[in-house]
Amino acid sequence: MIIKVFNEERKYDNPIKLSDLLDRNNITYLAAKVNNRLRELDYIISSDANVEFLDLCNTETMTIYQSTLRYVMVKAIKRVTQSAKVIFNYSISRSIFTSVSGIGGPLNQDFLDRIELEFNKIVTQDLPIKRRSVTKQEAIDYYHDAGFLDKTKILKYRTEDTVHMYECDGYMNYMFGYMLPSTRYLTKYKLKLYTPGFIIQYPRAELNGEIPKFEDAPSFGKALKEANIWGNIIDGSYIAKMNKIIEDGRAIEFINLCETRHNNSLADLGLAIKENIENIRLIAIAGPSSSGKTTFTNRLRIQLMSRNITPLMISIDNYYKSKAEAPKDEFGAPDLEHIEALDIKLFNEQMYKLINGEEVTLPVFDFDSGKSIPGKKVKLGKNQPIMIEGIHALNDTLTPSIPAHQKYKIYISPQAQLHIDDNNPISLTDIRLIRRIVRDNQFRNSSAIETLKMWSSVRRGEFKWIYPYQEKADYVYNSELTYELCVMKKYIIPLLQNIDENNEFFIEANRLIKFMKYFKEIEDKWVPCNSILREFIGGSMFYQ
C-alpha cells in the first residue's frame, strides 16, 4: 500500500499504526486526518491513504487534548484520594473549573500541589490509553464499583448494548470523544487555585497551541455561577435529571420555569434602564453567533415600551462599506466581520447628531448590489434612546463621540452549566453550534456540513471582535434555556446523521450525536411563540 505523508509517498507491505509513521520521540502531532477523516494516533492504516498529521493549532486536535487532560486529571485525583468526587465545568479565561469534594475538607494549595505531582508522575510514566468495548452492564458495574454513580445514571438512557471506554493502567473512563494514545503527550497545562476549586488551563488552537494568559472575568464568572445555581434550583444541570423531569410528566412545567427566568431577567433589565433613562442615549447589544440577539432585542424593545420608553432601532449592518473598501482577511478575501468594514465615521456622526436632537437620513445597505442607499429620515423624541445590535455594538471605536455614561451595554450569550456526567460538561459553544446548524437549515437552506465548514471562521471573529468586550457590559443576559436541547434533539440528530462517514466533518457530527442522543424529547408545540428558541426552530411571533 502507498501512504502519502509529509509530501512524500511511502510504501508498506503490511498495515501500520499512525503513530508508527512518526519518530518515537515526536509528541508534536496528536492526531491525523486519513483521507480527510480525523483519526486517533492508534488508528491502523490498511490501504492506500493520504495522511495529514495535526498539532495543537488544529481545533479538533485541541478537543482531543482537552478530553484526555480531563481523563488523566480524574485519574490523578483518584490516586491522591480514592473517595474524591470530581466535577468539571467550562469556565472563564477559556479554562476548566474543577470542583473536588469527598476529600475530608476544603481544597487548598497543598492538596492541589499533590494533585499536580501525581499528574506529572502519570505523564512521565508514559502510560498507554487504550480504547475498549464492553457491554452496558459491564460498564455500569465498573462505574458503580469505582464510585462514578453519575455515569451509571446516564447509561440508563443508552440504547446500544455496548459501551466504549478508555483504559489506562486499570482505570477506565469515557469522555465522549477521541483520546491521545498515551499520557506522555500531556505536556502543556497549568493549574490555579480558584475558590472553591481550581482552574485547569490548556492549549488553544486559536493561540497556535499555546496556553492563554489567565484573565479574570467578574461579569462572565458571575453569570456562570448564577447558571450553576439555576441548574440546581430546577434540577436540570444533568441530562439524567432533565430526563427524570420529563418522565415524571413535568415537561411543560420545566419549559415554563425556564421561560419565566428569561421574563424575569428582561423585567430586571427594563427596570434598570428605566431608572437611568435620563442619561441613557444608546443601548448597545452584542453577543456571539446564535445567542438569540434578534429575539432578545425585540423582546427588550417591548419590555421598554411597557415602561413608556420606545427605542429607535438602528441596524449596524446598514453601515457596511462596499466589499471593495472592506479590509482583507488572511486569505485575501473581504473581511466583513472587521470593524473597519463599517463606515465608522458616518455611524458615529449620525449617532451624535441624533442624540443632540438633529434629524438624519439613515442609510440602507443593499446586499444585492453591495452598496448603501438613502433610507428614511429619523429624529429622536424626548428620553428616546437608540438601540443597536451587532457584533461590534460594545466596541467604543464605533461611537467615540458618545460619553460612556450615555451608553448602556448588554452582552447576550447562553451561559449554562450542563453536564452529561460529572466529568463531561456540555460546551457553551456546542449549544450555540447546535442552534446555528438547526437555524441555518430551517431558514437559510444550508446543510449541517455548510454550517460546520464556516464555524471556525465564525469562532475566529468572536475571539477577535466579541469576547474582548464582554467584560465592559453593564448587563449580561443569559439566553440559555435549560430545556432547549430536549426540543432540539429531533431537529439536530437527523441533520448530523446525514453526514457521510467519509466526510471531514463526520467525527464532529458524531461527537455531537454522542451526547444529544441521551436527551429525552420535549414536543416543540409547547415552546412559547416569543421564546428565544423559536429563533432557531421556527414559529416565532417576531418573524413572518
Descriptive overview:
This protein has 544 residues and is an alpha+beta fold. 36% of the residues lie in helices and 20% in strands. The chain contains 14 helices and 23 strands. It has helices at 59-80, 109-124, 136-146, 149-155, 218-233, 239-247, 251-275, 293-305, 344-355, 428-443, 448-465, 484-497, 506-516, 534-537; strands at residues 2-5, 8-11, 16-17, 31-34, 37-39, 44-45, 49-54, 85-91, 95-101, 130-135, 162-168, 171-173, 190-194, 197-201, 282-286, 312-315, 360-366, 371-378, 386-389, 407-413, 419-421, 424-425, 475-478. Strands 2-1-7-4-5 form a five-stranded mixed beta sheet. Strands 16-19-15-20-23 form a five-stranded parallel beta sheet. The chain has a four-stranded antiparallel beta sheet with strand order 8-9-14-13, covered by helices on one side. A hairpin with a 2-residue loop joins β21 and β22 (424-425). α1 packs across α2 (109-124), α3 (136-146) runs antiparallel to α4 and α12 (484-497) runs antiparallel to α13. The protein is globular. It starts with a strand and ends in a 7-residue tail after the last helix. The mean pLDDT is 94.
User: What's the story with the biggest beta sheet?
Assistant: 5 strands, mixed
Q: Averaging pLDDT over every residue, what do you get?
A: 94
* Shape descriptor: globular
The secondary structure category is alpha+beta
Number of helices: 14
First-residue to last-residue Cα separation: 57 Å
Q: How many strand units? A: 23
Cα-based radius of gyration, to the nearest Å: 25 Å
Largest sheet: spatial strand order: 2-1-7-4-5
Low-confidence stretches: none
Helix content: 25-40%
Q: What proportion strand?
A: 15-25%
